[in-house]
Each structure stands twice: as structure tokens, then as C-alpha cells.
## 1
Amino acid sequence: MFLQQLVNGLTLGSTYSLIAIGFTLVLGLLQMLNIAHGDVFMFGAFLGLTFATLGVPLPLAFFLAMLGAGLMAILIERLCFRPLRKVHFLMPLLSTIAFGILLQNVATQIWGSEPSRYPQTTELAQYQLGPVLVSSIDIIIIAISLGLMVAIDLFVMKTSFGRAMRATSEKPQTASLQGVDTNRVIIFTFFSSGALAGVAGVLTALVYSQITPFIGIRQGLIGMVAMVIGGIGNLRGAMIGGLLIGIIEIMNDAYFTASYRDIILFGLFFIFIVFRPQGLFGTKQREA
Amino acid sequence: MKKKSRIIMLAILVLFVSAVTFHTASTAQALEGKEIKIGVAVPITGHGANVGKREAIGAQAAVDVINAGGGVGGVQLKLYIEDTASNPQEGVNAVRKLAGDHKVIAIVGPHYSGVGETTFPLGNQLKIVQVAVASSKPGLAAANRPYAFRNTLTEDKIAGAVVAEFKKRYGIKKVAIMTDIKDAVSRAVGTKVLPPTFKAQGIEVMTGDKPVTFQTNDTQFKAQITKLKMMNPDGVGLGALGPDALNIITEARRQGMKQPFMSTAPIMEGEVPELGGKAVLGTFSGTIWDLSLASADSKKFIDAYKKRAQTMYASKFTATPDYYPVNAYDAVFMIVEAIQKTGVTNTSSALGSDREKIMKYFTTLNNFKGVASRGFNEVGDGIKDVHVFEIKGGHWVPISK
């Protein structure tokens, strides 16, 4: 049973990682939280659902949802961050809270408050690997999540655009003087963050079937906890943090009671904030 | 002479006074005012928005039927709808607004037990009747006498009937219980209602007093199903709302569990048979009314509902009624019957006593002829018929006894 629960935890955790990476990308760049990030995740899930129910093949629906969620994140940047950058440092944060609520209510108008489901998600191939039962969707979710994590890590660390991102994150003015088009970097970062959230949304909805306009609230908060555990601004930390939280959550439900789950997760959040604010892996990884 | 005229004067005075008294007494029978105000406190926003809108439409459908027939003693009914936003704080605001600002005579609502836990005590304080249309957590109305009423059947009464059929069909000897620990009703079903109901019918509860737990709107149930699978029960008793039940059963089938599931009324909300496909076939539940049980009264309700649903909160989520709007519809008719039979005046000065008359009428009402409602028992909970259902071919189908 323990091994099976571990696999359960990894599947769950890999979607948390994708959300945490999105938070980390924006936070690392602008030193600003996008609270509406969880709702971009929700929006992506619904977009994927809409395309899938229209008969669009799943991989294409997936791609369109990713694109749509990325564009939504760009819209957030244009509405909540860019015009408010010089007003007060808290304004972008506050306006993303408002934007998130707006998005939830727009989604309620379009898709209704009762949970929606993806078509045909019960007919799945199952593989018995020793004591562990894995479904094709578990494999897809882990493969896509890990693949994207590695891709984004390589992109940020190895490409020249990635270098521009890191430069903008550390010293925006200097980067700008060095010829980095900071606005382009910012837009690209938001897009990536939104697209990752969109992927996580579709994957979550595919595997767990249920999506409501309010699904992003908890997912967003969990993403933030994962980010803090991994070390704020640390991409690899966010990945590990997400996986860890998935495993903790599953193990709690398996061996304790579900009512302890949020006490443990958010308790962990405070323990890290107070005793290890740099997270498991530190925050200065980029300078290393 | 003087004495005689005094007597006459006195007689005239007595006559005059009694005439005035009798006159007012006779007008007290007729209703005053240009409208009778009834309040509706249901969720129009938040996670219960769709069902709350259906309830409001159900109440409005009753008003439409009554007003089309000339109103109550010539006075038209008017509905005042306030949004409880699916949460206790807003529920309190809605009830305060209906009682204080709109000065309604009685309130239809709230929907959730969790909301009733705060609005029922407030109703007693303000001395105004609330007729909940969904809340079915055992003991909630009993704890809030005399003004709290619930036109629903508490889950313990439904569970008994469902478990009997479930046991008969599948030869159940041992069950595991999985329950929501956040939602008030589901938690009560999983921890307080199902265990004694199973035991009373000779079924072993393998989870004992430690059911497998989850929280409302959880997005995944992997850990819980892995655990249930290891226990290998004959069947699973669920304390869950429809959307969660749907995902739990789907996950169970994915992990290869073949055992049947059962639950009570809340899982009949949220299109479990339509969305669940093959995974949910053979699932048992029970309720008080369903679209498939169309009597003449039901038909009249369905027509009025569908007509109103075209103009009010029109959407695909409100187009078809379920049993919640029936409860709201019947509740309006109950209030109207109380108005007619207790000499409610509908004057602003008599608002307090009018509200009290409705409360008193409801405490003895047990032979009401509604679509699905018969009245209230001694603790304010609904008297209704129970129908047991099974999921067959994408629908809840009543089990013929």
C-alpha cells in the first residue's frame, strides 16, 4: 500500500509543481505575487474542457488550453502589473486578488457553479507494476510535468533568452541598459507561467475529473506553500516542493484523517517561513 | 327620567363600542395591504448558486400559480429574494434584510445546514419562521425550536430505507464508510447516520468509528480509494455530495474496485448518473421527489417551474427542476395555507403576531397535501415519503417494492 500511495503522491505533486513554478517565475522576475495564478489554472482547465467537449482531439485541446491560459496571464500582466508598477508596491498584488475573483465569477457565468467533467475519463489503460497499479493518465501526467520542468529549467539556465530573464530578475535597469528588452522578457515570463498553470489545470481535470470555478483557490495556495518550501525564487526548489506536498497530502489522507491535511500543509508553511525562510534549497541558486 | 336617559346613553355606548369591536373583529378575517411579502434566502452566488437559483424559481413558480388564481383572498403574493452566497455570514445578512428591511411574513430557506446553523438561532431571536429547503443534518431544527422548520427529510430516515434495499440487492455483510468531514450534512451521514443504520440491519462496519475521510470539493481521492481497496468490503457507504461521490466512484473503478456504493439524498444532486456513465451503475440512494415520479401535483409544479425558468435566472443549470425547488414550492403553499387558516391580517402593526401565527400553524401541520410535503414533525423536520433509487442507464430509477 505504501508504494501505491507514493505513486499517488507523485502524480498529485507533479501538478502542484507546475503551479509552484509559475508563481516562482513571476515572483523571481518582478518580486511580485500573482494571486490570480490559481485562477489561471482553473481557466486553463475549463478551456481544455470546452475544446474537448467540442470534439477537438485531446492533444490539440491541451495545446489550445495552454495557449489560452498563457494569454490570460499576459492580460493579467497588462491590467494588474504594468499600469500599476509605479503606483504603490502593493497595488499589483491587490489587483490580482480582484482579478482572480473576477475570473471565478466570469467562469461561474459561463460554465456554472456545479462541477464540470471531461468526457470519457474512466476508460483508461491500467498497468500493474509489481504491487503498484498505474494508469496511463498517471504516466502522462508525470511525463508531461517532469518534461516541462526539465524544459523550463534548461531554458532559463542555458539559453540567451533565459539569461536575459535572469538578468532582468536581478537588476532590471542594468539589464535594460545592456540591451535586454525587459518588457518582452516580462511578457514571455507571464506567458510561460500561465501556460504551465493551464497545463496543470487540464492534467488535474483529466485525472481527477472535477473542475469548478473555485478550484483554483486552494491549488493556488498550495502552489505558494510549495514555492516557500522549495525556496522563494528557486525553480528547482519549487519543483521538489510541489512533489513533497503531493506526497505529504496523500500520506496524510492514507494514514491519518483528511481534516489534518491543511493543518499539516499550512503549518509547514509557517515553520518554513519562520525557521527556514530560504526554503529547502536556498533562494540564491541563480547566483551560484 | 335622568336615570332612564343615563341607562339609554349607557346602552348606546355599549352598543357602539361592541359594534366597533365586532367590526374590527370581522375585518381581521380579511387580508390588508396590496401584497403579501414572502422572503426567500437561498444561495444565488457561490458554490450553491445553481441549486439556489432553482429553489428561488421553485418558490416563484408557487407564487405564479397562486397569483394566477387570484392571490390569497384577493391580495397578491410578492417574493423577496436575498442571496445567502452559500455561506453562514451572508446567510445572516440575508435573513436580517428580509425580516427587518423587507418585513416579510415568513422565509423560505436557507439551503445549507451550515447556513441554517447561524440563521436558525437568528430566526428565533427575530421571531420569524424559516423553512429550510435542503438542510438535512439530523437534529438541527430540533436545536432551534420554535421558529426553525425544514421541509426536507433528515438523512437518517432516508438511509434506513436505502440500506435495506442495498443489502437485499447485493447481499451486503460488511461495508466500509467513506465520508466528507467538511460539509455538515455529509459528515453527519458518514459519521452519525450510516454506522448505526448499517449495524441495525446486521451489517458489519469495517471502518468502525474511523471512516475513511476527505474534504468537500477535494480534487482527488487516490489515497482514500487505495485504502478502501485494501479493506475489500462488500459495499461502500458514502457521506458525500453528488459531485464528490461522482469522482470517488470513478476513482474506485479506475483502481479496479468493483463493489457497489450507496448514499443518501445529497448525492442525487449534481447529475451523477448522467456524468458518471458506466462507473456509477448500480449505485443506490434515496430521496423524496424525482422528476420521474410525476403525479398530477408534480406535473402542475413542473409546468409552472419550467415556464418561470425561461425568464428567471435562465440557464441550462436551472432549466430542469430537482427536489429542492419542489421543497421551496411546497413551502410557499404551506405559508399560504397558514395565512388563510389562522386569520393573518397582513397589517404592518400585526407583523409580529402574523409571524407567530404561521409558526404556531406549522407546529401542528401534519396532513399538508403538497407535491412532496406532508407537514412537520414535533421537532420541525419535514414529513415526506421516501423513494429508493438505483442508477440504471444514465438515470436514477425508482426501485419498485
## 2
Amino acid sequence: MPDALLDKVRAAVGAPNVLTGVELSPYVVEGRTPEAAVFPGSVDEVAAVIGLAAEAARPVTPWGGGTAASVGMPAAPGGFVLGLRRLSRLLEHEPGDLTASAEAGMTVDAFQTALRGRGQWVSLDPADARLATLGGVLATNASGPRRHLYGTARDLLIGLTVVTADGAIVRGGGKVVKNVAGYDLPKLFVGSYGTLGVIVEATVKLRPLPDHERLLCIPFDRLKDAGAAVRALLAGDLIPNAIELLDAAAGAALGAEGPALVVGFDGLREQVDWQCAELTRLAASCGGREGRPLPDDTWPRLETAARAAFPAATAFMAFSVLPSQVADLMEQGAGAARARGLASAWAAHAGVGVVRAALASDVRPKEPAALAGVLTDWRDLARAGGGHGTLEWVPLAVKSQVPVWDDPGAAGRIMERIKAQLDPRNILNPGRFVAGI
Amino acid sequence: MATLTASAKRDLRHELEAIVGPGAVLSDPDELLVYESDGLTLFRALADFVLFPTSVEHVAAIVKLANREKLPFVARGAGTGLSGGCLPAEGGIVISLMRMNRVLEVDYDNQIAVVEPGLVNLHLSWKVGPHGYYYAPDPSSQQACTIGGNIANNSGGPHTLKYGVTTNHVLGLEVVMPDGEIVWLGGKTRDANGYDLAGVFVGSEGTFGIATKIVVRILKKPQAVKTVLAVFDEIDRASEAVSAVIGRGLVPAAMEMIDHLTIQAVEDAFGCGYPRDADAALLIELDGLTVGMEPQAERIVAACREAGAREIRTAKNEAERLLLWKGRKSAFGAYGRISPAYMVMDGVIPRTKLPYVLHRVNEIVAAAGLRVGNVFHAGDGNLHPNLLYDPRKPGDEARVVAAGAEIMKVCAEVGGSISGEHGIGLEKSDFMPFIFSAADLAFMHRLKGAFNPTGLCNPGKIFPTKKSCGEAGAVAYRPHPIEEKGLAQRF
């Protein structure tokens, strides 16, 4: 990077907020080191930095807590990491409006703590909430078990401020819970992996904290039976806030013996009590054993249950399928891995068809070709039912053999056109996302 | 835009008939008149053709032909829109989707349905109702409006307070793109693979293409429903009750405000049993489990009483509940009893600003010498001031339009939006600068370029058209070119 450009960046954000050289080690992803990591202290400074990057045609990698930094194709060589950690303030919280605005670099935990103090929360429970930032969670569409009842970022984000690829500050949506004025930019940015603009501020819908909440774990002898219990649960009157289906490997990490169904309920105490009793009865009719409540600190471990099954998993993959296909995908996927001599662990947000799998690290062979074979089998299984699969983490060598992102089909062309319109110089996370975007 | 000669129009008609069949093409000005406006009759424009395709292939072929001829085209559902969003531009083609109205698939295991765009919203709930399911977005026009139209406007309804608006219930769409290509955006599963194109498409007011199949979520009907009417002697107290309910940690399924004038109209029309002497009433509905319903209802009643409700009525059975809702859902129509015409506004405000904004609305309307009826989604802060007027009185219409602009400005000033569910369309396009900067609008325009680079797909909507944006009175009627040529006239 030319010194003149670095000097301009230092002038824009202050020299102590620009890291270079050995200080960059936390920002090395898959062996690629950025030229500088820049930490602007305001929206205007973000705009200034991106403006400079655009002028010099340097790639920009937006960076929140870094918890999803290795998701996607490897970052373009060189360029800036644009860290949002100094943009971490709560901007506004009006409990009567059930809305709050914060800067994108605020961690999810910090945001929730502030909201909880006034009896509310944002119904997003991604993994790594201590590190993950609001902006990062939105950009990667991260979610957690409570999405079953409360939806995902697309359902909660009502407004945002982004800095665009040419350094302009653009607002979309608003601060009110219902709003159809203009195109739905919040939807565009949720899950866009920093390829269309850098989210700097967000406004979300909130919910009141429930009076009570409980997780119930029901072990089963067979995953298939637990799957049948999920279907019965979905068809009934209960209103769970989470429905987690775990195979034996993932269940073990939570202390369950064998496959397990973990269901959450919230509301008034009598509602939680009644639903737990009903669930127990329903599960028993499907072959479930006696349930037991799980401690509250289980909640944050549900999102990562599959990968936690192994001390250092070789690969994680996420799938979206129809809810009715979840148990089959888990069984057939585990079978496909076994057929290649690999162990796997599976966990699902079963009511919404979001499944995660991890491949064990301690089983040979670990050659990329064998790994690639399993991952390709898995993806084929998901695609066969109209779903799709994303490699959330794999060794770099595998990424060249199995695409990280699934093929979006004809819609990919529209995505390419959107990228070309909004980032014509291709500086924002180039090449990292779907369809080569 | 191309202007069609009589012979070119004749030739085109033959080509269009070859696509959709002779019974599915309208081109006589008197037949086209039916399609010259939507629910907002302030705007009118005549198309060259109105077509009734019955398949996605028809729609794609029409769109390709329109591209070849450089004719603007716009999709249309039931025409219940309230912002002029489905009006043709200057001639061109209206593609009515009313003959594509089938429920193609219902998958109860996965709680989804695949429907065609011309399906009437309520008909989906009728279809899945016997199985214990329903489609949650419930615009007040749900007996007539189509799901395709709901997609265009990202329609809401009373129960969106708890259940969200249309976009929260759409998983995927088959779309005829503005160049005629058929593409699926999203699908039947959650979490888009790539950009959330289905999310971006919903609410794009027909400017990103034409949805031909829609995958929606259907929900289990709740075990129990409780509906109460809280009656207030002062509308301010009712506004405060809205925040008080939320402040007690409750999110009802619906929380609707009905003001004094609206109560008169509704009672004249339907006799729903709303107290005529009340200044305002809140219609509040709770739904969910039977267990816990009573204590939750008690919390709501207590919040309303503390805020100053003089009386709380509870629907004792389904018939009483439906009667209470009839008054709310039919209120717009009931204004016909007390005024020859009305124009409904659709601003949204943070709900804590309700008392202030309602006062400002009343001041603005009084200063304009008009009357206003308020019936709206109070829980969402989505206002619907209905400005009553007489179109035969000279100047009334212009005063309504000017007052409407001022109301939108107030909504913007308190951090709100100019539209909660009706869309920008033609009506509000010049007011977009109230809430969006030039940079915001330029960015949206570039996004439009990715979907609709020629601009032929529903032109003239959403974006400000005038040089001096945001001036009141921007929406006066302009004669249609066909009228100017004497090919059509207004009755």
C-alpha cells in the first residue's frame, strides 16, 4: 500500500486507529494479511475511509467481532480491514416504542444488557454474542434457537445506515415498526456479507422480556422418533420459542444420552408449566423418554451444538431445508459421512428447517478429497429436497473443491447486477460471496 | 414512451390475442375506463390495453412484447390499492392477474402454501381454515385485495402488530422480470442463498417485476382469542393506553383506535354497538394459549383503566367479536354515510408520539376547513387520518391534498414514515424527500436499475418526479394523452 494512501487514512481516523505490520495478526484470515486494519470512530470517518479506498481501488473487508471472518471464499489479497469496534454506542432506546438504535460495532451482549435493564430484548440469539457485533450479525444473517418463534434479522431490522461503496451515507427503512416507504434496504443488507455497503447503524424491533422461560430436553432412542415428535409439536397448539433436534453426537455435548429433542417455552409461568407438561405427553407418545429441564446457560450452546461435539471439527456446514426433511437429512447425512469413514454431528432448528452439521477431526482420512466428497454428498441431499447448503467453515484446500456457497441458479444473475449497480468498482469484500460476488 | 397509432394498436391487439386469447384483451376506451384508477380515485390514467393472462408463460410473453415495443406495463390485482400504484403510465399495458387466482399447493406439514398472485387474500384463509390454519396478513380490504397486490405494497393489517406484515410471511416468489425472464427469488426454505431477493422484491410496488407464484407461510389458528373494546371520553387517554399496554410487557395481536367521528359513521352504517358518545375506543385483541389468557387480559384491562378508560367491553362470543371487528374493518366504507368522498393518509409514527401527532392532525385539518375521521393501527403507530371532503366543492380536493402533505410532514418530523402499508405509488412520490435524502434515493434508484434497467415496468412510481421535490399540491390530475387526442373521455 502506498505510504501516501496510508497517511491519508491515518489523517482521517487518527494514527493510533490504523494498524499495520505485526499488529495485523488478529486480522489474518486463511493466510491472507490485509495491508492495514482501520478503526474509524464515527460514521463520517467510515465514509472517509471507504472514499479513500474507492479512489485507490483497494478492497475493503468490514469487520465486526471477527466471528464469521472465515465464512465465504477467501478475502481478496491486500486492502483494508475496516473495523467497527469504535462504533459501539447505544443511540436510542424508547421502551414505549419497542425499538432501539445502536451503532453497528456494539456487541450483541452489550446491546442486550442495555435493553434488559429496561425490561426488553431484541429477539436475536446468535452464537458468540459476547464478541459478535450487531452489524456483523445483520450482515451474516446470524440467528439462534429462538428464531423458531421470533424470526431472524430480516424480521427485526427496521432501519439502517450504511456507508456505500463510493463513501456515501445512505439510510434505508426508518425508526418505526411498520414502514413501506421506498425499497426495503434492510432486507437487502441482511445476509449480504458486507458486499454492498458497510452497516454502521441499525434500528431494530424489540420485545418485552418474558416472565418465564424454560428449556426442556427429551431424550429418544431413535432420531426418527424425535423427528416425528417435532411434526406432532408443529401440528399442535403449543407455542414453543425453540425446537432443537440433536443427534446422539450433538446431544452428548449438552449432556443428553442419545438423540434429543430440546424445546423452549416462554410466557407466564402457568403457560410454561402447562406447555412443558403437554410436550412431555406428546413426546412420550412418539417414544420420548422422561424430559428434564436444562439450565439457562444451555441456550447459547444450542446454536453451536453440532460443532461442539468434536474438540476441533474439520468442517461445519449449514443447510436450509423443509422442516419435514430435517430428520431424514440428519440421518442420511450422517450415513454419507460414515460411508466415507468419517464421524459427524448434527443439530437443527427443526421447526424452521435450518440444520447444522460438523465433521469430526479425529477420524481418518482427512484428505481434502474425502472431505469434499462428504460435503458434496451433504449438499446434494439438501438440494434434492429443494434446499441449499453453505460451508460455514472448511480448510482452505477444500474451498477450491467444493463451492462455499450453493448455486443460486438464475437468481444469481440478478445478484450480480445488484452488486454491479451498488459496488461497481468491486471493492467491498470482493469475491467472497455467492455467485462470485 | 411510444405513442401508438390506431393501426399499430390494431396490430398489437392481434399479437396480444395470440398470446392470451381473444377473450383476454381489452382495448376499447370504454372498457379500459374500469382500469383507469385504483382505490384512490384522485389519479386516473388510461392504458392502451388491459390483459388477463392465465399463466406465467403468458405474462412473460406479454412483458417481452412490451419490451420490444418499448411500451410501459404494470401489474394489477383487485385495484384496491390506495396510492395509485397500479396505474398505467402514459398508455401501455395493464396486466391484470385476476385470472391467476389458484391455490396451487398447501403443505400443512411445512406450513406453507403456494398461490397465484390474483388469489384474494381472504380466500387463502378460507382454503386452509378447515385444517386449522390461516394466512396472517389481514389488510382491511382482505375480502377483495389480492396476495399479489399485497406483495407489491408489503401490506399490513390489524394483526400485524403481533404477526408482522406481508414480507414476514413470504418465503419465495416466481417472478417475471422486467425483461421477461422467469426467475425464482427465494423458495420454500428459510435463509436466502445469497441476497434476500424475495425480501427486496416484496414492497417494491411492482417496479421490480411481476410475481406469478408466491410461497407464503400459513399459521396455526390460536387456541384462544380475547377481544375487548376499551371506551374513552378523551382520545388522549386512549393514546396513552396504547403505550401503557406496551409498557406492561404485553404485545396484543391487534390494538386499533377508532375515533368519535368514525364511531358515528360505523354506527350509522352497521350498528356494531360502539358507544356513540365516546371520544375514542381501542379495539384490543389477544390471542394464544387458553392457559394464561385471563391474566393477560386482566393486565390489559388494568392498563386501560389506569389510562382513563371509562368502560371495557368484552366480546362474549365469536358473533360479538366479529361485530366489533366489522366496525373496524368496514370503517372506510362507512365514511360514505357522512361524506361524499374521503382521502386516507397512511403515516407512521413512534407510538409514544401519538397524542402529539393526533393533535397536530386535528389542527391541520381544522385550519383547512375539513373534517377528519381517525381509524388506525394504534399499536403499530400506523395512522389513517381520513380527510373527508366533497369533490364537487371547488378547492376542496386541493385543500385535502395540501393538508395531507402537511400531515406527512408532521409524521416525518417526529421520526416516522409517510407510508405504513399503502405504498408510495403516484400519490406520495413527491413526498419521499420528507424522509429520504438525495443519496438515499439515488441508492434506491441504482437498486431499481438492477431489476428494471429500462424503467418500463411500472414507471413513474415511488421516486419524486418534480424538480422542487415535496411541494404540496403536486398530485393534481393531468389529462391523459388519449383524452387529449379525443380517443377517450371522462364520465
